[in-house]
Automatic annotation (TrEMBL):
Binding positions ([4Fe-4S] cluster): C254, C400, C450, C453
Keyword Ribosomal protein set for record: no
Pfam entry (one): GATase_7
EC number: 2.4.2.14
Gene assigned in the entry: purF
Coiled-coil intervals: none
Annotated GO MF terms: 4 iron, 4 sulfur cluster binding; amidophosphoribosyltransferase activity; magnesium ion binding
SUPFAM superfamilies hit by this protein: N-terminal nucleophile aminohydrolases (Ntn hydrolases), PRTase-like
Record-listed Mg(2+) binding positions: S301, D363, D364
Protein name: Amidophosphoribosyltransferase
Lineage: Bacteria, Pseudomonadati, Spirochaetota, Spirochaetia, Spirochaetales
Signal peptide: none
Length: 465
């Protein structure tokens, strides 16, 4: 797996739209992707079906590039592109580097028709599948795991696309929330463990699928439901057909979606992201209090948990750190000094708030400890009297194989230091983490989640350790 030194990296976002009547589908995909920008900032792309009225057929048109949604897609959208279906993707690479050939959607024509795919997740047996396909003579255009899926469908001995797809899904391990196009059909698929979220929604004119409900909100869709783990949905002009392709698998949703990745105004896994984070902050305050004057978040991802902490502890909530929104959500910088500069470019204390104060600083997670070490030194420079760091996630000690780019064990600060050791290392007066049982209590179905980056108990055994 390629690593590109950085704090926690996000993953991808997908969107798909089907319209009963020709509509400007690329524009709808753009709005959906714009709302999902926080899930991936390396590349953006769309693929839609351009109708060919002369013979009643259509062909897939793909438009994608490295960069953010608005930069990549705005120019293309200057004129309307009438269509009835399309898919879109924002990417953070988990397998295959940040290069144009790995940008999604990926489209191909094969013996079973034309197809396109946009994938959020990571196939944990990709190396084995890659080796097998290479032996059989596959020639790959990209180095991502996503392309394997198209090859497997094309090489399948099954007679048609649908049975080849089902056969292929049965061979995939790990995380895949995906949207696909096949001829005039939009297909939505969620892996049997349900690692990544996926929603389907309906308006009077369109049916849309998206990673998070904030993208459906952008499309003015209020009637939606979760695509279930192991569910496959076929969406075309005759309506929506649902099938289950892996009955009996126990769901293991990624708890980090709720801790950090998803947008606070979204629902993921049928939970409000903001309210769940607030509950995590409140649980942290119950167990890990400290004598202090105020509670401050590390914006933006620490905001909701800090609010919950402040409410529960009865301490005042203050915005004592300003975030520069022109600095992207995450930086892909290889060296520690570059990462340090990145934190300084992004976050800065409000001196008048922190001076002379005993502060509880709430962030969602500690990965390498770079962000908090720098922040605490900035806050000391600004006159903070005490800084007690509280994390609304447990200690991250293990890498993720299901689509989150968590660094190697060696680089994870909680892997080598205890909370007290971390406090000494980053210059905090105390450091405390949310405990796993408490985290589970904040969720409607605590057992139905993956906690492998905290426990090392992988729900699907990684084959590439
Ligand atoms: O211990 P570290 O290696 O520094 O990583 C931890 C930080 O990384 C994440 O924020 P990130 O900057 O990725 O994004 P955000 O601005 O959305 O919180 C997370 O919210 C922590 O603040
Ligand atoms: N983060 C993701 O979901 C990435 C999808 C896919 N594994 C890729 O690297 O392109
Ligand atoms: S290992 Fe952690 S980040 Fe990866 S799916 Fe499980 S909970 Fe999510
Ligand atoms: Mg952060």
């Amino acid at each position: 797996m390629e690593q590109q030194g950085d704090s926690l990296r996000h993953h991808c976002g997908v969107v798909g739209v089907h319209s009963a009547n020709p509509d400007n589908i690329p524009e709808k995909l753009f709005y959906g992707l714009f709302a999902l920008q926080h899930r991936g900032q390396e590349s953006a792309g769309i693929c839609y079906r351009k109708e060919i009225p002369e013979d009643g057929t259509g062909r897939f048109v793909t438009y994608k590039d490295l960069g953010m949604v608005s930069t990549v897609l705005s120019r293309y959208l200057e004129k309307p592109h009438p269509s009835t279906l399309g898919i879109g993707h924002v990417r953070y690479s988990t397998r295959g580097g940040n290069r144009l050939e790995n940008a999604q959607p990926l489209a191909a024509s094969c013996n079973k028709g034309s197809a396109a795919i946009a994938h959020n997740g990571n196939i944990s047996n990709a190396s084995a599948l890659n080796a097998r396909l290479s032996m059989d003579g596959s020639i790959f255009q990209s180095t991502s795991d996503t392309e394997l899926i198209l090859h497997m469908i094309a090489r399948s001995r099954q007679p048609d696309f649908k049975s080849a797809l089902i056969e292929t899904l049965g061979e995939l391990e790990g995380a895949f929330s995906m949207v696909m196009l096949h001829e005039d059909q939009l297909i939505a698929i969620r892996d049997p463990w349900g690692f990544r979220p996926l929603y389907i929604g309906f308006s009077d004119t369109i049916t849309a699928v998206a990673s998070e409900t904030c993208a459906l909100d952008m499309l003015k869709i209020r009637d939606f439901r979760e695509v279930k783990p192991g569910e496959i949905l076929y969406i075309d002009s005759s309506g929506v057909k649902s099938e289950t392709f892996a009955p009996g698998t126990e769901p293991k949703r990624c708890v980090f979606e709720l801790i950090y990745f998803a947008r606070p105004d979204s629902l993921v896994f049928e939970e409000s992201v903001h309210l769940t984070r607030k509950a995590m902050g409140a649980a942290l305050a119950m167990d890990e209090s400290a004598e202090a004057d105020l509670v401050m978040p590390v914006p933006d991802s620490g905001n909701s948990a800090a609010l919950g902490y402040a409410e529960q502890s009865g301490l005042p909530f203050e915005q004592g750190l300003t975030r520069n929104h022109y600095a992207g959500r995450s930086f892909i910088l290889p060296t520690t000094s570059q990462r340090e500069l990145a934190v300084r470019m992004k976050l800065h204390p409000v001196r008048e708030v922190v001076r002379g104060k005993r502060i509880i600083l709430v962030d969602d997670s500690l990965v390498r400890g770079t962000t908090s070490r720098i922040l605490i030194s900035l806050m000391r420079e600004a006159g903070a009297k005490e800084v007690h760091l509280r994390l609304s996630a447990p200690e991250i000690k293990f890498p993720c194989y299901y689509g989150i780019d968590i660094p190697t064990r060696k680089e994870l600060i909680s892997n080598s230091l205890s909370p007290d050791g971390i406090a000494a290392h980053i210059g905090a007066d105390s450091v405390k983490f949310l405990k796993i049982p408490r985290l589970m209590e904040c969720l409607k179905d605590g057992e139905g989640y993956c906690y492998a980056c905290f426990t090392g108990n992988y729900p699907v055994q990684p084959r590439e350790v």
